[in-house]
Amino acid sequence: MAATLKASTVKALAEKHNLTEIPPIYNFQTLSTIDQAIASGGAGEDQEPIPVIDFSLLTSGTPDQRSPIVRNLGNMCRDWGCFMVINHRVDEGLINKILDSCKEFFDQEEEVKREYEGKHTSDPICHGTGADAAVTEVLFWRDYLRVMVHPEFHSPSKPAGEVLAEFTNAIRGMVRDLLGGISESLGLESSYMDRALNLESSLQFFDANLYPPCPQPELAVGLPPHTDHGLLTVLIQNGINGLQVQHEDKWVAANIIPGAFFVNIGDQLEVFTNGKYKSVFHRAAVNNTATRISIAVPNGPSADTIVKPVPELLDNGSCPAAYAGMKYKDYLELQHGSGLKGRAWII
């Protein structure tokens, strides 16, 4: 079938038409030479695995057990910008329930989902397809649902409010514990980030992504290379891999351990640490056989917090601040306008 068909969502395009080619607007190879260079290269098969942290030892271990965990957590943040979390104590049944309910959302009729179409990054609930921003040159092979869940809680009909609230509350608690350990790895008090970034009113989103099978996965992209806007993003998936991270100038497949969470550093943590811990570039690849569902939960400071390098990491002036301070909500506006082209703001 000619690759000129249009559909309201990628899911509808993939399911309702017997495609052998993708429409040109989804062909990532039509981008500029510079953008192609940034995105080029597949993830190698013979690769170093993503590091893993045992969350139970961070939160409940003895001092002798906890000390190396904190040290290793700092090494992971410095060397990788990401890690996997095991023994996180988030109920497996709750994880399966939230994944199943997201599938139910995407399986709804187009007219039902259209009720949640959003126009702006500040919309509390936003369903869309192709891309987050109108400034992108090529559409992404994905449909998405984005919900603001903290400090104000919003919910579509699916996932149900009580399930969504229970899951995101659990993630928020885990993130605060992880940030406590990261604070200690920097030589700060465990509660330093919690206070400085007003995590009690942290801005938290729930992003569900659907990547249907693609007839030409080598030409399309689920999400292009980018960094996340917040402090830490927590991700789960339905068992289908596709996430890739950039490590030592190579793309590495994030083969997530079943039942584990994948966590990556965002731009706000890079700014806060004055570049000691950098946000990691990552992307989503697509395949031609299976539908991938991922749920990413970005966790940031409060919307009105001015994020800037922490003075204690500037070595009394011998290490100057590499980033200017900016309100988190203003940074979000910048990222929305960047169309996911790398970092929204690097100085």
Helix content class: 25-40%
Question: Structural class of the helices, strands and pairings?
Answer: alpha+beta
Largest sheet: 8 strands, mixed
- Write down the overall geometry: globular
Number of domains: 1
Mean pLDDT: 89
The low-confidence parts are: 1-6
CATH architecture grouping: Sandwich
What order do the helices and strands follow?
HHEHHEHHEEHHEEEEEEHEEEEH
- Provide the β-strand percentage band: 15-25%
CATH level-4 homologous superfamily: B-lactam Antibiotic, Isopenicillin N Synthase, Chain
For the record, the CATH class is: Mainly Beta
Written account of the structure:
The protein is an alpha+beta fold. It has a single domain, classed as Jelly Rolls (Sandwich), CATH 2.60.120.330. Helices cover 30% and strands 20% of the residues. It contains 10 helices and 14 strands. The strands form 3 sheets. It has an 8-stranded mixed beta sheet with strand order 1-2-10-7-12-5-4-3. β8 and β9 form a beta hairpin. It is globular and about 60 Å long. It starts with 9 loop residues before the first helix and ends in a 9-residue tail after the last helix. The N terminus is likely disordered.
